[in-house]
Amino acid sequence: MRAPAPAYAAAGNTIEVATRAIGAGLVHAVELVGEVQLHVHRDALVPAMIALRDTPGLEYQQLMEIAGVDYPQRAERFDVVYNLLSMTRNHRVQIHVATDEEHPIPSVTGIWPVAGWLEREVYDLYGVLFEGNKDLRRILTDYGFRGHPLRKDFPMTGYTELRYSEEEKRVVYQPVQLAQDFRTFDFLSPWEGAEYVLPGDEKAATPADGPAVPQAKGAQTPLNADQIAKADAAGAPKQAPAASSEPYAKTTADSTADTGKGAPHPDATPKPADPDVVPTKAGQNQ
What we know:
The protein is α/β, with parallel strands linked by helices. Among the domains are: about 15-130, NADH:ubiquinone oxidoreductase Nqo5 subunit (Beta Polymerase, domain 2); about 185-235, no CATH class. The protein is about 15% helix and about 20% strand. It has a 5-stranded mixed sheet. A two-stranded parallel sheet has the order 6-7. A two-stranded antiparallel sheet has the order 8-9.
């Protein structure tokens, strides 16, 4: 059963109405994959938000989220994105404001008080300043945290780590110490084999008298699939598997126990019939 109403309404003439309502404060507007994006200059943010809330035909009453985006290659590297919802029109719109580390963005807490915590998140994770926020402090990271973790130039390991010290019986901070170096992974097929030599592979090095000969089918080999195929095509001799204790390494079978077929023991003879047991017509021994 389909829903009685769509998930959200179509954009319609939202861009035209918003362009007239915001005026010169609108840098540009675009509709992408059904979502309207309005890029507004930061000095005109508060009047633009009031216009989007109060203008008939727009009526975006709720501030749903504030997010940050980092573009290090730009002069104004940060985009602060405001997601607004119109409950009257069942439509959402995104307001983009560009800034950098030094120029603050006007706070919208005077319009939507819920923006206080949302602006603190963006400040904590990106370092964007909000002018007019009376409680602009960190909200997600710990006390004394250095840097802003969602910036593209922030190291993934961070600078300090938090752990419980058994010696001091308390939580301590210390510089990040990796337990092991970052491993270098290759994405070659495991059936092809890597170009480098792993510990233990030196035992299967190429002999001095010629190239290595592949082992029989099913046995482990240091060669890759292409080398085995070329050796098969040329009719190269096969080596027996080195592990003679494995089932596929047996070359002789002196008894049925070696073949694994489950046949009876070669010394076994048919059991003689019991002369005291006489079957009857009813199938029961009387």
